[in-house]
Amino acid sequence: MANTSATGGYLAPTAPVPPEDDELDNLLQGLVAGVTGLPGAMVRPRWQPTVPKQPEPTENWCAMGIPRQANDASPDIQHDGDGDGSDAYIRHQEIELLCSFYGPAAKGYAQRLVDGMSIPQNSDQLAASGMKFVRASEIQAAPALINQQWNRRYDLTLTLRRKITRTYPVLNLLSAEVQSTTDSVPPVAATTNIHQ
Fold it and tell me: What is the pTM of this model?
C-alpha cells in the first residue's frame, strides 16, 4: 500500500497520471497524421530502440519527437477536504514537438500541419486530451546529401500547452495541539487542543 501523510515517507500520486512516454508519443502521432493527412504508418517516432528502414526519397513521411518539456514556475496545491482528504497538484507545462518532413511534398505537409493547427475542430481534438496549441515555429529547410542525391527535409516545432493535475494522499488534519505565547509583558503561554 502507498504511503499517506499519516504514515510519513514519500508520497506518490494516487490518481491516473497524464500521458507520458509512448502514450504521449502515440497521442501526438495521431495529431500529426490527422492534421496533415499522412498515413499513420508514415508519421514515425523520431527516436526508436530499433531504427526501422528509412522510406525511399520518393515517399512523403514525418519523423516526430519531443526534445523539450518545460514546467511553469511553480504548481498550485489545493487541499480537498472531502472524505479522508487529498491534495490536488496543478501545474502547466509547455511541450515542444519537433517534426521533420521528408519526401517530394515535404514542405507542403509541413505547411499543412502549421495551417491545420489553427482549425477549431483540430483544436477541439487536442483539447479533449487536455492540451492546447500555442504556436508553430518557422519551417526550415534541412536537406541531406545521401548517396550523391539531395533528399528534401523541412523541420518545424509545434509548441503545445497542457495542464497537469495529480492527486496526493494528504489527509485531513483531525486533531492538533497548538502552543502559543503572547507578546505581552509578562508573556502568557497557552496550549490549545483542536479536534475535529
Answer: 0.83
Is residue 30 left, alpha or beta, with left meaning phi > 0 and alpha meaning psi from -120 to 50? alpha
Residue 109's nearest CA partner among 78, 153, 161, 168 is 153
Assign 116 a pLDDT band (cuts: 50, 70, 90): very high
Indicate the residue type of 45: P
What is residue 120's predicted lDDT score, i.e. its pLDDT?
Answer: 95
Q: Who's near 147: CB < 8 A, 6+ residues apart?
A: none
Query: Would you state the pLDDT for residue 1?
Result: 56
Q: How many other β-carbons are positioned within 10 Å of the β-carbon of residue 19?
A: 16
CB 142 within 8 A of CB 155: yes
Longest dimension (CA), the chain: 92
Element (H, E) at 90: strand 86-102
Tell me the residue length of the chain: 196
Beta carbons of 90 and 165 less than 8 angstroms apart: yes
Tell me the three state secondary structure of residue 101.
strand
Q: What gap in Å lies between CA 172 and CA 191, rounded to an integer?
A: 21
> Which band of pLDDT confidence, cut at 50, 70 and 90, is reported for residue 196?
low
Residue 85 has pLDDT above 80, yes or no: yes
**Torsion angles phi and psi, residue 23, rounded to 5:** -65, -45
Nearest one of 35, 89, 98, 40 to 64, comparing CA atoms: 98
